[in-house]
User: Fold these one by one.
Assistant:
Number 1:
Amino acid sequence: MLVNERTFTQEVLESPIPVLVNFEAHWCGLCRIIYPLLLQFQNECGDEIKLVGVNADQNFKLSTTYKLKSLPTLLLIEEGIVRRRLEVFCGREDFRMALEEIKFIFTSSHKNHYEQELGVRSQESGGRITPCETVGGWHKFG
């Protein structure tokens, strides 16, 4: 699904499920290379994580708002907050591992286990979930 500046708020920021936003451009070779991995990711996550694309050239305000430095840049947005930022990949395997991490942390079958591992109470129990600090697309604990 492609979104633009007009539909971004409704489709991404107000989404009831996490959204992986793929900022791309038609001239970007790496964007074309990762596309099959993104389709596989979407199929594996089903309706637990939404995948959308944004043409960075045609949506300059969004590109500026999210301070894009390179393409592709992927943002995982949950409840209107950027939870992960993926950019500057070392290769296909590096990108695949980053997607696996997102799937592990943000799908319901793994989310409760992840929260328990970190000692974080879920929102259902009245606690607050604090996002991990990201460093170069990977999360840093502690």
Note: Residues 8-140 form a domain with the Glutaredoxin fold (CATH 3.40.30.10).
Number 2:
Amino acid sequence: MTPEEICARLLYRDGLMLVVDKPAGLPVHRGPKGGENFEDSFGGLRFGLPRNPSLAHRLDKDTSGCLVLGRHRKALEKLALLFKQGKIGKTYWAIVCGGPTEDEGLIDLPLGRLDATRGWWMKVDPAGLPSQTRWRVLGRGRDPSGAPICWLALSPLTGRTHQLRVHCAALDFPIFGDPIYGAATSSDAVLHLHARAISIPLSKNKLAIEVEACAPDHMKERLAACGWTQRLDDAVVALRQKREAERENERESARTEAKVGEI
């Protein structure tokens, strides 16, 4: 990914952190076998600092959306603590096969490793770690084949590996395109799981920073079948541009004050 391409995916920037829109199908970092990864492009996101930003958390290879980067060591330590304490709010959009009968609920199922040979694959396990996910129905519809589908907002209260994918599958509404947990309808189906929004309380004296990532192209057809419209994302882009203009004005004012102080 070129510097121009990754900068085009920038959703938020301040002195401590960045939020970027990760594309589906690209691992966040280099695996044991090497290959293309998102982290290799972080050199295009320095914005004047001497080192590349670093991952504050991770998303699965096939998950798209909001990914948080720390711009330096102290920022990474602060972000790591917020994630560990569960203070960072995350909302994912998913298209699931079938869907729940209710309109909202809580999944409370402990998760553990599937077995020693399957890497990070997970399963519901009474002896596993506590795992909770809140869910809410945003829309219902049918995919191009006529099969029922559902558009969910998922909010993980814990951060287990593959938590949302295992929880949805365990309740018999697996995420569309999931090749591991049971809803990949073809070899080229893409996982329909998107990190839509993140809320980061960086400062005790300021409101939490709210960032949203627009729906990825591969999900739009089924989202639209469930009631999504492009106007939702147009509003997200307009608000982001307004906030960035305000932050740029603040940065310019700070630069001007610094120059005056040097006189």
Note: The chain has one domain: 3-230.
Number 3:
Amino acid sequence: MLAVCRSAADRAFAGAGARKLGKVSELGYLALGPAPVGYVDGWELQRRIHARRVADEVPDSCLLLEHEPVYTAGKRTAASDRPFGDPGAPVIDVDRGGKITWHGPGQLTAYPIVRLREPVDVVAYVRALEEAMIRTCAEFGVTAVRVAGRSGAWIPGDPGRPGDPDRKVGAIGARVARGVTMHGLALNCDCDLSWYDRIVPCGIRDAGTTTLSAEAGRQVTVAAITPVLERHLAEALGYRTWRRIADAHSLTGPAASLPDRPPAAAAAR
């Protein structure tokens, strides 16, 4: 079980479950670092919070974490995109859109669990996730862009230079169920790119993958990226304010079993 502390703000956050929520103007962030979280544990945490958000028992929130190494295969993953033999990490079929990708240490993963406004516009939501990653990259001196027909944040290659393809620095794989989002985005900070060599990332064969560190020419860590992404993601999704949640049980309910994290991380501001 996770050792947590409860602030006055968290008690108010938890108290939202006593009433049905109206329009939400604040996004709450729950950071599960710095230790990597097993994918199944993180997925179960998403599902628990998603069910409570669907029932209007909790406000909009977003999980921030690094995973233990794992390959996740979305609904459109082709057999030829999957790793052959032992890839060195589990391969888990998931209920999001898209194809296969990798998650692991050195990659910041964000799972917004938010109610979309009616009429639900999934494309606009994906564009907001892209915008948050693009703005975050810009603050570290890296120009990321959108690529037509491909989701995510990309570093454009030079079409005049053979062997210099577009490189994906941030991936998106989302699901919307009963008007509430799950899964989300993954931004490569300083992860080991050799994990991608064992799959066809996102089913795209004519592009590469990269990290913010590689593009910036210096180490850019998950810890450095996190507060920047927090700000830009809240802005891109249209929230007036955001804050960090110290008590995970204010989202999950008191009986939930949670991934371990140090008390200092839980109390961070």
Note: Residues 8-266 form a domain with the BirA Bifunctional Protein; domain 2 fold (CATH 3.30.930.10).
Number 4:
Amino acid sequence: MSASIEQLLDELRAALGAQRATVRVDVPDAYFPVAYESLAPGTGSLRADSTDLRTQPVPRILAESDGQVVQEDSAAAFPDDAAFHEMRERYGGMRSQIVTGCYRDGKLVALLSIHDLRAPRRFSEEERALCRAAAAEVAGRLDDAP
């Protein structure tokens, strides 16, 4: 496990005042399992979560376009997608999130997620940019991670 990625997540989560930050890495025979995680006290881990993200809308969007998905009110997102809302509840009642793709040579290699479990919130452009910069760092550091 890369201590530098864990430290990056700790710093990012604290800077954004979020309860959870994760990096899910694309690996053979699995679809983006949680490889790195930073949790605020009392926040549940997603490391054992077995959600197949191929069935979820956010990773599909990021695989098709290099970018970021910002949900200021996750409860209002994808209103007709019951699987998304079941996952959101398993994730501690996730209320808002930023998910940023980590790309290498144009390929999505990881997902950087920031979860706020307390309430819907507006993410500033500075916060969004901070996540984009962190995602680029993660993509570069994955080569160094055991």
Note: The chain has one domain: 3-144.
